[in-house]
Amino acid sequence: MDAKTVMLQRAEEVIDAYGCKKENIIAIMQDIQAEYKYLSQDVLALIALKLDIGVAKVYSVATFYENFSLEAKGRHIIKICDGTACHVRKSQPIYDAIYNYLGLSGKRKTSEDGFYTLETVACLGACGLAPVMTLDGEVHSKMDPDSALALLEQVRKEEEAAG
To answer: Which of 64, 89, 105 is at the close of a domain?
Structure first.
């Protein structure tokens, strides 16, 4: 069975667990995204079918809430804070360095190899530690472009060594 079929079967299990009720659409989407890190077009279509609502309605819910992602994410999620304190303390050069390191272009957020996804957030709530980034939810403070890239290299090397 291919990955797409497995994802759709699992999504159907989640939808069924919520009784195929329209009022549970957000919880359904959250559970599916928690498992797969994004909501594919096929999953959105399945949700619409199972909840007996239009695909446009499902899509509007998915795009209204910032926490939902419609594109596949990498194994590791990098978030760069662009709140006032971080921005003033030069978070943008950190973002730019990582963007270039990952070989991203345009609006693409995930590296070609699917290893990293780069995102910005309005505030991580650690203003006194600015500039801040998170890697897989772990906060890294007082970053600069060199320390950020060194961290990414370290994670990649550790994962390669683990096999």
So the answer is: 64
Buried b (16+ CB within 10 A) or exposed e, 126-163: bbebbbbbbbeeeebeebebeebbebbeebeeeeeeee
70 found inside a domain: no
* Helices and strands, counts by H and E, the chain: 7, 4
pLDDT at residue 66 tops 80: no
Q: What is the pTM of this model?
A: 0.74
DSSP output for 122-136: S--S-GGG-S-EEET
Q: How many domains does the chain have?
A: 2
Contact 11, 32 (CB under 8 A): yes
Q: What is the pLDDT of residue 72?
A: 86
The last residue of one of the domains, among 30, 64, 98, is 64
Strands 133-135 and 116-121: unpaired
Six token digits for residue 96: 């730019």
